[in-house]
Automatic annotation (TrEMBL):
Coiled coil: none annotated. This is DUF559 domain-containing protein. Residues 197-277 form the DUF559 domain. It comes from the Bacteria. InterPro entries: DUF559, Restrct_endonuc-II-like. It holds the Pfam family DUF559.
Length: 288
């Protein structure tokens, strides 16, 4: 596989050093301006490629934090999607100074306790992106992103623990609470709401053979979080209703909340649960 084919297969962006493993310096120079262009010294991109990675490189760094989350398919916090750029800790160039004032760019540097590695394809790996995000996003969004990375197998639990241990205490909380139990970032956000309210819960409890509920509170209150992605189709909605009926027949009480409710009406969701918990409705079957 020649250099151009390899770059097409691996995302269209690489370092010059990596390119030299597949083509000579003369061959690379001959392709500059026609097949290849350089968004930053030491980097090559295929002609016509313009994305958040090349934009980050043009401003002196690599894509990181929530921008990297999106590239890796992790949970991305709701809100304006700026390009998050990590520059080398020791870099203080005019380019970087100018980037700090560019609208739409959030500039970062890696924490002093962590290695300042350059990723090979212009975007931080999930663990590095989480390290940067620990100083940028809320603890709830951080745990949601870490949960999604664990669930997808993008990071290992031991590596995540090691990262949390290396960070200052104020930046650890979202990472220390992460698990692979949440099926979506919305579930992670809801779990954080329950923890803050002091409500104990179990995730992914198997109450019907082969079926797992998002949250079980006490012995009888089931809470399901419906994202548009996983619960928006008519077929899935029909399956959800059938499962709700089966759970109700067994004496469980089922509450469902949408993505929008969890993100924008958290207090209302919590109030509904607290009303049931205060009546001890989560500890007995409704048919009793």
């Amino acid at each position: 596989m020649d250099l151009v084919e390899w770059m097409r297969a691996t995302g269209g962006l690489c370092t010059v050093q990596a390119a030299r493993d597949r083509a000579s310096s003369d061959e690379i120079d001959a392709m500059r301006g026609s097949v290849l262009w350089s968004p930053l010294r030491g980097w090559l991109a295929l002609a016509g490629m313009r994305d958040e990675r090349t934009w980050a490189l043009q401003h002196g760094g690599v894509a990181t934090c929530v921008t990297a989350f999106a590239r890796h398919g992790m949970w991305v916090p709701h809100g304006p999607q700026h390009v998050h750029v990590r520059v080398n800790r020791e870099t203080h160039s005019a380019r970087v100074a100018a980037a700090a004032s560019v609208p739409g760019i959030v500039l970062h540097r890696m924490h002093l306790r962590l290695p300042d590695r350059r990723p090979g394809h212009g975007v931080d790996v999930p663990l590095a992106a989480l390290a940067v995000a620990s100083g940028c996003v809320s603890a709830d969004d951080l745990v949601a992103a870490a949960d999604s990375a664990l669930a997808a197998g993008l990071i290992g639990r031991d590596d995540l623990r090691a990262l949390a241990a290396a960070l200052p205490r104020r930046r650890r909380r979202g990472l220390e609470r992460a698990s692979s139990l949440s099926g979506s970032g919305t579930e992670s956000a809801f779990a954080a709401v329950l923890r803050r309210a002091g409500i104990a819960f179990a995730q992914q409890a198997e109450l019907v053979p082969g079926e797992y509920v998002d949250f079980l509170i006490g012995t009888s209150l089931v809470v399901e979080i419906d994202s548009q992605r996983w619960h928006g189709s008519p077929d899935q909605q029909a399956r959800d209703r059938a499962r709700d009926a089966a759970l109700t027949a067994l004496g469980y009480r089922v509450l469902r909340f949408t993505y929008e409710q969890v993100l924008f009406e958290r207090e209302r969701c919590l109030a509904a649960i607290l009303a049931i918990v205060r009546r001890d409705g989560h500890r007995r079957r409704s048919w009793r």
